[in-house]
Design brief:
The structure holds two protein chains of two kinds.
Chain A (H helix, E strand, L loop, with lengths): L5 E10 L2 E11 L4 E5 L6 H8 L9 E4 L2 E2 L4 H6 L1 E4 L11 H11 L4 H14 L15 H13 L5 E5 L7 H18 L2 E6 L10 E6 L2 E7 L8 H9 L4
Parallel strand pairs in A: 3-8, 3-9, 6-7, 7-8
Antiparallel strand pairs in A: 1-2, 1-4, 4-5, 9-10
Helix pairs in contact in A: 3-4, 3-5, 4-5, 5-6
Chain B lengths: L4 H22 L1 H22 L17 H31 L1 H6 L5 H29 L6 H28 L6 H14 L7 H7 L1 H9 L1 H13 L5 H21 L14
Classes of the chains: A alpha/beta, B mainly alpha.
Chain lengths: ~240, ~270
């Protein structure tokens, strides 16, 4: 059996008395687009912070491509590419300088990094913006630059935390189709956190997270016979 | 794709240093401010107090020295103190803007990432100090030429200690707005209650308590380490205090940025 790109087993996390995640288990199979659906406050970002080791995981097991995050954090993080909910690029530096910095943080020598920057910027159609400061980019361009940053070290798993928030309809569609293209053409896997039902296709894997608990995990088409709005309402009691 | 073994660590360190340098170069005003501040003290304050503050022979000086000569090592340490706080400010800014997360999700251990950031900041501060010493030379501050080389390890240790203190403070500061408090409660008391502007024996003349506070201040030992090194001597007590405080502050910073404490980033739901 192939090791999944991500395996989260029985993970809980609390902030004081508030239980943000309660016995969460999910898997992201290799080469899949897995949507993590939940309203604001469902626990998506907390889960992402645990997977990226920004928070320490104290219960359950998180494995990235078979590497236990707690016992083997280096190899696990090396296989992760992350697009955070809010901007994580340095606005005072150019796109290229940001990407070179991120490549260095993954130990990629400068000669290889330069070539890789050209490659990933072409993939996200930002080649002409390599020398532009991040502060001069539009919202959609910043998102694409964030994705190129996450791709620079050739990760096996992409984590995208509400990557389309704040984007116009056109930019949203571009970011989503870019992610699907990367899965189809580059063989990466993606965990796509969202609260927007339109972004989920029937053939996608779907995990519904609500108040820190997984309410559904399976193919999107299997949730209420593909009627995601009804499924979400029935499971959470919250209109999507 | 990543470099293997130690070379990967070196690539990561060089990348962090390069980013700090780029940020510094992009902020020319910061470089200017870092230079103007001690120069104002040297050109105006020290010149004004030259006649008021008489100094008897004090180690490491072999003879009477002008007040400008006495105050120069303190101003070198002041550059490093402000640089350490500037690094701390940049950590808080990175945390507020989200850029910090890019650093923290690197596969390298967190202590190494923090140490790299610390060393990168110290390199910048040493460049500032040498520029200041060069200008001071033309103002008549002439330590032994070999002192310029001998002071390098002292500047490195002093910069690391003050930078580590900034790093430790940055872990506790939640918002940029709180930084004004650091200026009022950390930088100014540390600078004025030290041997940067007056020798400790002068402090004792006015208040024994104040003298004791100054003697316990780690910044005093940064100043004295630099002062003695600039005149080709080692102040062993100051060396010990600086090394001890470096270990304490850096250990505290690593502990505070540990993911188990969750202080590296702000808690945000979603």
């Amino acid at each position: 059996m192939t090791t999944p790109a991500l395996s989260v087993q029985n993970v809980s996390h609390s902030f004081g008395a508030f239980r943000a995640l309660d016995d969460v288990s999910l898997t992201v199979p290799r080469g899949s687009f897995t949507a993590l659906l939940g309203v604001n406050g469902a626990g998506k970002t907390t889960l992402f912070n645990l997977i990226t080791r920004l928070y320490a995981n104290r219960s359950g097991v998180i494995e990235v491509a078979g590497h236990d995050l707690r016992r083997d954090p280096g190899p696990a993080l090396r296989r992760l590419g992350v697009v955070f909910q809010s901007r994580a690029l340095d606005a005072d530096l150019t796109v290229q300088q940001n990407l070179m910095y991120h490549a260095a943080l993954h130990g990629i020598p400068r000669s290889k990094a330069r070539a890789r920057v050209v490659e990933v910027l072409a993939q996200v159609d930002l080649s002409d913006k390599a020398g532009a400061k991040v502060s001069a980019l539009s919202g959609g361009q910043v998102r694409r630059a964030e994705i190129s940053r996450a791709l620079i070290h050739r990760p096996e798993l992409l984590l995208l935390d509400e990557a389309t928030v704040g984007l116009d309809v056109k930019s949203r569609a571009e970011v989503l189709s870019l992610t699907r293209w990367l899965i189809a053409e580059q063989g990466v896997s993606a965990l796509w956190a969202t609260h927007i039902l339109d972004e989920i296709a029937p053939s996608d894997r779907l995990v519904i997270l609500h108040r820190g608990r997984v309410l559904f995990a399976g193919l999107a088409r299997d949730a209420a016979d593909g009627d995601l709005t009804r499924a979400f309402l029935e499971l959470t009691g919250v209109p999507a | 794709m990543s470099a293997s073994g130690m070379s990967g660590w070196w690539v990561a360190f060089a990348g962090i240093s390069r980013r700090e340098t780029l940020r510094f170069v992009n902020q020319r005003g910061r470089f200017l401010a870092a230079l103007v501040r001690p120069l104002v003290w040297l050109f105006i304050f020290a010149a004004g107090f030259r006649a008021v503050l008489g100094l008897s022979i004090t180690a490491p000086y072999q003879t009477y020295v002008l007040y400008e000569v006495y105050v120069t090592p303190g101003l070198c340490a002041m550059i490093q103190l402000f640089n350490g706080m500037q690094s701390s400010l940049s950590m808080v800014y990175d945390r507020e803007t989200g850029a910090m997360r890019t650093l923290l999700v690197s596969p390298y251990p967190r202590w190494f990432l923090l140490a790299s950031k610390l060393v990168a900041g110290v390199i910048v501060s040493i460049i500032q100090v040498y520029t200041f010493l060069l200008i001071a030379w033309f103002w008549g501050i002439h330590p032994p030429l070999a002192g310029f080389l001998a002071v390098l390890p002292a500047l490195l240790l002093s910069g690391l200690m003050l930078g580590a203190m900034g790093l430790f403070l940055s872990s506790a500061i939640r918002q940029l707005e709180n930084f004004a408090g650091v200026m009022n409660f950390v930088i100014f008391p540390m600078f004025f209650a030290s041997s940067a502007l007056y020798p400790l024996w002068r402090m004792r003349e006015s208040s024994v308590l104040l003298h004791d506070i100054c003697a316990l201040n780690p910044f005093t030992h940064s100043v004295e380490l630099i002062r003695f090194a600039l005149y080709l001597q080692v102040n062993w007590l100051s060396l010990g205090v600086v090394l001890g405080c470096l270990a304490l502050f850096f250990g505290g910073a690593v502990l505070m940025y540990d993911p188990g404490r969750g202080l590296g980033i702000r808690r945000k739901g979603g």
